[in-house]
Inverse folding.
């Protein structure tokens, strides 16, 4: 008994394209087109995507660390 395409379970759930929201294509996952794929690559290369970081030294204000002094 062979399975028909209607009975085949997809490998991953369909998700919308992160750029435009259309249904993604299997060969371009998670994108719907090469255009959206190129837009995403351009955002990475220009630095539009960035993980925000906070310097620990900026929290203190004066740049010193507050470690307990040990004598000995």
């Amino acid at each position: 008994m062979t399975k028909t395409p209607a009975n085949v379970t997809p490998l991953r759930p369909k998700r919308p394209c992160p750029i435009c929201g259309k249904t993604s294509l299997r060969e371009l996952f998670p994108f719907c087109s090469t255009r959206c794929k190129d837009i995403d690559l351009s955002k990475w290369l220009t630095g539009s995507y960035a993980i925000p970081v906070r310097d620990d030294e900026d929290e203190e204000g004066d740049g010193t660390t507050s470690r307990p002094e040990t004598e000995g």
About this structure: The chain has a mean pLDDT of 79. The two ends are 81 Å apart (CA to CA).
